[in-house]
Design goal:
- Helices cover 39% and strands 16% of the residues.
- The longest helix has 18 residues.
- It contains eight helices and nine strands.
- The chain has one domain: P-loop containing nucleotide triphosphate hydrolases (Rossmann fold, 3-Layer(aba) Sandwich).
- Strand 6 and strand 7 form a beta hairpin.
- The protein is globular.
- The protein is of the alpha/beta class and 201 residues long.
- The chain has a five-stranded parallel beta sheet with strand order 2-5-8-1-9.
């Protein structure tokens, strides 16, 4: 992560502080501001750094598959479920689960995610058995989740569960000379890639 403006220095300070806790984190910022980079920094500075960081873009998974992807499914639980599958939440056990664009989760999946945070357990689609999990949740969004709560699009109880440690990433237009630093950093990366025959332009 690159930046030396006051807002970014404060963000880096908060990342170092928040990383030492086990609390859920909500990263907010416009598209392209580096929310996944913040999630990776939190994971790498945490006590879970030697376990998995599982990243999921909630907006990229079809609504009819989101619960199966997150929580897994049993063989035969729906058409096409030819094998038992481990979900991504379980894959993040003892590590960190990063849910990008959490505002795109359908309400039913939100309810199941809330159970993970409250009871520390999951239940595969089509199963009656629960499995204990220990995951730290980092969520990110460019949406106004409080407005979503008011409109009935996001569960209020889940919002308060994930908004324990909020982090706000400033937009690039408010970061002054950081624009030059970012451009120089990108140029250095591309020059190294060009030198070794790996074209990244």
């Amino acid at each position: 992560m690159v930046g030396s403006c006051p807002a970014m220095k404060e963000l880096f300070r908060r990342i170092r502080k928040v990383a030492l806790t086990n609390s859920s984190v909500l990263i907010q910022g416009e598209s392209g501001t580096g929310k996944e980079l913040v999630a990776k920094a939190l994971h790498e500075a945490s006590s879970r750094k030697n376990s998995n960081l599982i990243s999921i873009n909630c907006a990229a998974i079809p609504e009819n598959l989101i619960e199966s992807e997150l929580f897994g499914h049993e063989k035969g639980s729906f058409t096409g479920a030819t094998n038992t599958r481990t979900g991504l939440v379980e894959a993040a056990n003892n590590g960190t689960l990063f849910l990008d664009e959490i505002g795109e989760l359908p309400l039913e999946a939100q309810a199941r995610l809330l159970r993970v945070l409250q009871e520390h357990e999951i239940r595969k689609v089509g199963s009656v058995q629960s499995t204990k999990v220990d995951v730290r949740l980092i969520a990110a969004t460019h949406r106004d989740l409080q407005q979503f709560v008011m409109e009935g699009l996001f569960r209020e109880d889940l919002f308060y569960r994930i908004n324990v440690m909020p982090l706000q990433i400033p937009p690039l237009r408010d970061r002054g000379t950081d624009i030059l630093e970012l451009a120089e950093s990108k140029l250095r990366v591309n020059l190294r890639a060009f030198r070794y025959g790996i074209y990244a332009f």
